Amino acid sequence: MAYNSYGQAFRILDKYRLWSILILPSILSLLIAIIIAILAWTTSDDIIFYFTSKYPASDLNSDLGNLFKIVTSIAIRGLTFFIYLKLFRYLILILLSPVFTNISKILYVEVEHHEHKLNIWSYCFCSLRGIKIALRNFVLEIFATILLTILSILVFWLFPLIPILILIAESYFFGCVLMDYRFEKDEHTIREGIIKCRNLPGIPIGIGLIFNLILLIPLIGVMFGPVLAMIAAQESVNHINRSKSDANSIN
Questions:
Q1: In this predicted model, what pLDDT tens digit does every residue of 117-162 receive, in sequence order?
Q2: Is 119 left (phi over 0), alpha (psi -120 to 50) or beta?
Q3: Phi/psi at 134 (nearest 5 deg)?
Q4: Nearest residue to 205 (alpha-carbon basis) of 167, 158, 232, 240
């Protein structure tokens, strides 16, 4: 369903001529990505310098020392960028919450043909709700990542599976935040939205996994990935609602 929702997102943008809604979030996403990349690079430089400065220069100039510097640099940069990538995802969800709130309203009115008045108070409420669930899921994702890392140390044979489990966990938490923008339109509480995601975990996981794959596309991924994921999440909830409505009509 998540894969189809991403395809449906493109069809919606084309059918209703909504390509303009991509402009602002794509620019903001790119700016955030640039800042995060600079911070990740400078942070990893500082950490690499700290570790290499602990060894005598004569040792580092040997073949073994050069190998140590290369391996250390790769490991530190990889870990640093991994951490900052997590930060990037949730900075997008937090800082772009007002933008996502507006896009969600546009889709709800233009595509689903519902009446929805968004005054300043409801706009702020929806934006703050998005920030609240993003912060909640960020804490849970970090906790899950730490727990899985500890588990990989205690149960060594699980080590090859841990990166996959971490990817699934972060995809789930990311997808749940985006789906909540549509749950709010149905007047579900945050708690009710969480329960819905737990009952259908494959959908938020799929949304997050495909988003991660889109991020691998240079430049385009960081610019358009977040807003496409948001539209796909809303369409996934619409599909759930339509399926439930069809089932009720049959009964």
A1: 667 888 898 899 999 999 999 999 999 999 998 998 888 888 889 9
A2: beta
A3: -65, -45
A4: 167
Tell me which DSSP letter residue 119 carries. Answer: -
Where would I find the H helices in 96-119?
Answer: 97-106
Instruction: Tell me if 207 sits within 8 A of 153, measured CB to CB.
Output: no
* pTM for this predicted structure: 0.88
8 Å CB contact between 8 and 232:
yes
d(CA 45, CA 126): 39
Nearest CA-CA partner of 230 in 157, 150, 130, 147? 130
> Whats the size of the chain, residue-wise?
251
Phi-psi group of 219: left, alpha or beta (phi > 0 → left; psi -120 to 50 → alpha; rest → beta): left
